[in-house]
Amino acid sequence: MQIDSRIPHQHEVRPFFQPILSLQNQEIIGYETLGRRIRNGVVESLGPFFQSSDIPEEVHLTIDRYLREDAMKQLAATDDECLLFINLKPSWIYRTYRRTGELPTLQLIRKYQINPARIVIEITEEEFTGKLQELMQIVGLYRDFGCIVAIDDVGSGFSNFDRIASLQPKILKIDLNILKKSATHAGYKALMESFSILAAQMGASLLVEGVETKQELHSALQVGARYVQGYLFSKAESELQHRDAFKDMLKEEMQLFSLNEFQRYSQMFAVQQNLDAFVHSMLPIRTSEDADQVIEHAMSKVSNTCMRMYICREDGCQISSNYSRRDETWCKDESYRGANWIWRPYFISNILMMNLQKQGIFSQPYTDLDTSYQIQTYSCVVGESCYLFLDLTI
Q: Do residues 67 and 33 touch, judged by C-beta distance below 8 A?
C-alpha cells in the first residue's frame, strides 16, 4: 500500500508562532499559531496540506487538533500573558458541533487551565454552505466561554458583510493583498478605510497582516490599525519571542509617521490662516455673481494643493460656479450653479459644526468622484448662510 507523502506524520509536525504587535504599546500582544512540517531538517509550510481538497477532512482535523493542543500546551507553560490566535474553519466547527455537541478547543482550554480571554478564535476565510444562524450560535459559545472572536482575511471574498455582522467579531483581520494594493491604488485605499470605519462602528479592532515594509506599516497606521503582523517584524518561529523585541523599531517608525502627518496637516491649516482675514472682510453674498467674485478674490489666498472651489448655501444648494485648477489655470463652470450636495455624508453635521464653533473644518480624507484623487475638503462660513468649500489634494 502506497503512503501519500503529502500527509505528514504527527512526529513531523509542530506549531510555529508569528508575533502580532500592538501599535498602542509597541509590544507583542499575541501570536498566530501556524503548522509546520519538519522533514530531514527542512521546515515546510502545512498550507498545501490543509488546502488540498482531495485529502479527507478527518485527516486535516487530526493534524490540526494535534497542532492546536501542542500550541496551547506551550501557551499554558509560559508566564507571558500573550494571546494565542487559533485558525478555525467555519465548516469544521459547524460540522463537529452538529455531530458531537462538543467544541474541542474549549475542552483544551479546560484541560490546560488557560484563561479563555487569552484565546482568539480566528474564523478563517472559506466558502460556508451551512446555516449562518447556527454558525452564529456556535461561535457564540466561544464568546460566552470568554474567548475573543476574530474574522480572518476580511475583504478577500467569502467574509462578506452578512457574516461579519452576524458573528460580531472583536477583531477584523484585513487581507494583506488589499493593504499592498492600497499603497498605489485609490480604490483599494478607500476599501481599507471603509474597513477601518466598519471596525470602529462595530466596536472591533483592526489587525493588518502581511506587513512586509515600513511603507506598509505607515499605510496600516493611516487606516487606523490597532494591531499589525508580518515579515517586517518576524516570520513564524518555533519559540515565543520577547514582548519588547520590536519596540524600538516601532517607536521610531511611529514617530516618523507622526512627523509626516503633522507636516501634512500644518500645510492644510495654513490654508485656513490665509483665508481668515479675507473671509472677515468680504461683502455679503446675494447672487451667484457675488459668490463667483468671492472665489476669484480667494484664488490668490489658497495653496497649490487646492484643486476646486465653490460656495453653497446651508440647504446644500450650490450658489457659485465650480472653479477647478487645471495646469495652474483656474477654469470656471457655471453649470454647477443650483446643484444640491445635501446628499453627501456629513454635509449637514459639518454645517452645524461650523456654525457652532465659528470656524472652518476639514473633512476626513476620501477619493474624489471626478478625478479619483485622494482629497480633503476644507469648508468655512463666508457670509450669512453661505459656505466656501475647497477641495485639497493629499
A: yes
253, 217 Cβ separation under 8 angstroms: yes
**Residues 276 and 270: beta-carbon distance below 8 Å:** no
For residue 206, what is its C-alpha cell? 483592526
Angstrom distance (rounded) from CA 91 to CA 124 = 10
307, 335 contact by CB (below 8 A): no
Question: In the beta sheet, which residues pair with residue 313?
Answer: 386
Q: Cα-flanking dihedrals φ and ψ of residue 319, to 5°?
A: -95, -25
Q: Quick one: which of 164, 165, 224 has its CA closest to 194? A: 224
Among the residues of the chain, which ranges form H helices?
A: 47-51, 57-77, 90-100, 104-111, 132-145, 161-167, 176-182, 186-202, 214-222, 247-280, 288-298, 347-357
- Judge contact between 360 and 276, C-beta under 8 A: no
Residue appearing with cell numbers 516601532: 250
Q: Please compute the mean of the pLDDT values over residues 115-120 and round it to a whole number.
A: 96
Kindly tell me the sign of the dihedral angle through the C-alpha atoms of 321, 325, 326, 327: positive
Q: Which residue has the higher pLDDT, 280 or 17?
A: 17
Higher pLDDT: 263 or 42? It is 42
Residue with cell 449637514: 348
Residue count of the chain: 394
Q: How many CB atoms lie within 10 A of CB 127?
A: 8
CA angle 186, 187, 189 (to 5 degrees): 60
pLDDT digits (tens, 9 = 90+) for 139-153: 999 999 999 999 987
Q: Amino acid letter at 182?
A: S
Give tens-digit pLDDT for 312-351: 999 999 999 999 998 889 999 999 999 999 998 778 888 9
Quick one: pLDDT at residue 375?
A: 86
* Cα of 187 vs its chain's centroid, Å: 14
CA distance 140 to 160: 18
DSSP letter at 299? G
Neighbours of 180 (CB within 10 A): 18
Euclidean distance between CA atoms 66 and 72, whole angstroms: 10
Distances (CA, A) of 163 to 124, 130, 141, 309: 12, 12, 16, 42
- Radius of gyration for the chain, computed over Cα atoms and rounded to the nearest angstrom: 27
Whether the CB-CB separation of 303 and 390 falls below 8 Å is answered with no
